[in-house]
Amino acid sequence: MKVLVLGSSGVVGSALSTHLRSVGHDVTDWDIELSPKHDLSNPTNTFHLKKAIDASDFVWFLAYDVGGSKYLQDMTIDFMNRNCAIMANTFSLLAGKKFVFASSQMQNMMDNAYGVLKCLGEHYTQNTGGLSMRFWNVYGNEPVGEKSHVIPDFIHQAKTEGRIHMLTDGEEERQFLYTTDCSKCLEAIMNNYDEILATGRTSVDVTNHVWTKIKDVAEMIAPGQVFAKEGKKDATQTIRNEPDDFILKYWKPEITLEQGIKIMRDTSSLP
After folding, report:
1. pLDDT, tens digit, for every residue of 46-69?
2. pTM for the full model?
3. Does domain 2-267 have CATH number 3.40.50.720?
């Protein structure tokens, strides 16, 4: 199958592109990191984007300006404008195509700009005839910086400082899915796309269905060397959602959080 991956350099997109190629699909990568002409927020690039979409049998719409909680807690006008432009330019070209839009379990958090944007994306998707998938927390190796997520940040601290200083008290609970498991889940969604849509569903939750406290994640990485910020709560997620287990009909996670963290520690290029 000819598959177009929009956002192919991200944590999910890079793992998905690699996995799909390994099982025999013809994958086209598309990401702003490849060149300026791959910037989906720039309307002058839509001619080349349309050609890529038309040549594909299936499109993964993963491209977005996104990052971990430390990035999402301070969203600017530019952040909102970029993501609105990405959606406006891309969804207009997807009508009649088989495609999946990467949404978030935060899509019903209307006091959070990121949640509102993902909710808007789901409306675009439904009206364009595609399927939304709601990511919870997908983790894997990525460069550590402003946009990186909690597990790579913790591993980086443990390797460079021998300890972890958390930004909160760590009492918040999250669900974590390793990129290898996530890629297999997305392959299952693609392979069963028509059947899933035939059920009347407009979205699918993608997660490992296991709750873990952030402070417990830190302890897995640096036992006895975790320093919480007492009384500081994570304000980025304001509703505790429960995932739908529909996807387990087609796929089940294989890698535990402990196993995923060990793989990352063993394969990370960080010092």
Report:
1. 999 999 999 999 999 999 876 545
2. 0.93
3. yes
